[in-house]
Amino acid sequence: MKDVIVLGGGPAGISAAIYAKRAGADVLVIDGGSSALLKAKAIQNYYGFESISGEDLINRGVEQYKKLGGEFLRGEVLQIKNDFDAHTYIVELKDKSFEAKAIILALGAGKTVDGLAPFENANVSYCAICDGFFFTGRDVCVIGDGEFALSEAEELAKNAKTVYLISKNAPKTQKMSKNIKIISKNIVGFNGKDMLEEVVFEDETIKVDGAFVALGSLSSFEIAKQLGLITNGNAIEVDKNQMTNLAGAFACGDCVGGLLQVSKAVGEGAVAGIEAVRYVKMIDGKD
Ligand SMILES: Cc1cc2nc3c(=O)[nH]c(=O)nc-3n(C[C@H](O)[C@H](O)[C@H](O)COP(=O)(O)OP(=O)(O)OC[C@H]3O[C@@H](n4cnc5c(N)ncnc54)[C@H](O)[C@@H]3O)c2cc1C
């Protein structure tokens, strides 16, 4: 049992982890290694650095955190559950899971698929475990790559008739359910009136009753759906202490929207780290 698990090792997550660790908490950071900052060749607007590459800035933060004795795990979070009665969160990876008294979501900005926006409030979902049941006996597609897309497809395969996994990079596995069909083609468009009805490829069109987005790794938006967090568009809503509507679940950085910059991510991370530890002490009866 950890005091705090930080999901995401970009500037928001590492800043949160540094503050939580320095406040005496047992902290674990889990990070997929795809921070937006890695794409930035030169950061020239961050306090104290005339110019620094995004990669260098991240590495410095991670090293600083590790020197404090903080645990850092490279991995992809696939699911988060909360146990209200025990005041704990369960964070699941492919082959292991961890428990914590508080979590800090710092997973960066959510990813969306071009052309799906008109159907977002109809039959497009970001969470198979939340909405899969509505597609019992139906044909659905999952758009995404990697382990997360496959795990969403498997979740849907329990109830759906056919699950089209539209993926250029589907993981190779022997154990895939029979009703999952992989399509490794480029999507050229989507058709539908009020609801999404068809996915169009260069050489064929398939009919679907719904679509699930699972790009890259589980995004902050999908986690928000899994946990029942209040969102505004793709952004997780937080109070002035960076706490979401769930006690013990905090969020910071790009996933809460607003200014998408390192300085804001780091500042919010600091608040989330301090407040998460304050929360843990409170439930432990030490405050
Ligand atoms: C090209 C480019 C240039 C930029 N230039 C600047 C600039 O000059 N100045 C500036 O201030 N900002 C700049 N930014 C913005 C800045 O990079 C972001 O605002 C900042 O990185 C946000 O930090 P974050 O910690 O919230 O998210 P991120 O840095 O995106 O970190 C999120 C982390 O969460 C991890 N993650 C996500 N899902 C999972 C999962 N399911 N399991 C495990 N880990 C997961 C990712 O691997 C990632 O490491 C730039 C961004 C880009 C793309």
Structural description of this entry:
The chain is α/β, with parallel strands linked by helices and 287 residues long. The protein folds into 2 domains: 2-110 and 218-283, FAD/NAD(P)-binding domain (3-Layer(bba) Sandwich), CATH 3.50.50.60; 117-213, FAD/NAD(P)-binding domain, CATH 3.50.50. The chain contains 6 helices and 17 strands. Strands 1, 2, 3, 4, 5, 6 and 17 form a 7-stranded mixed beta sheet that branches. It has a 5-stranded parallel beta sheet with strand order 7-14-8-9-10, with helices on one face. A 3-stranded antiparallel beta sheet has the order 11-12-13, with no helix packed on it. Helix 1 (11-22) runs parallel beside helix 2 and helix 1 (11-22) packs parallel to helix 6. The protein is globular and about 55 Å long. It starts with a strand and ends with a helix. The mean pLDDT is 92. Flavin-adenine dinucleotide binds next to helix 1, strand 2 and helix 6. Residues 8-13, 30-37, 39-40, 43, 45-46, 76-77, 106-108, 217-219, 253-254, 260-263, 265 line the site of flavin-adenine dinucleotide (FAD).
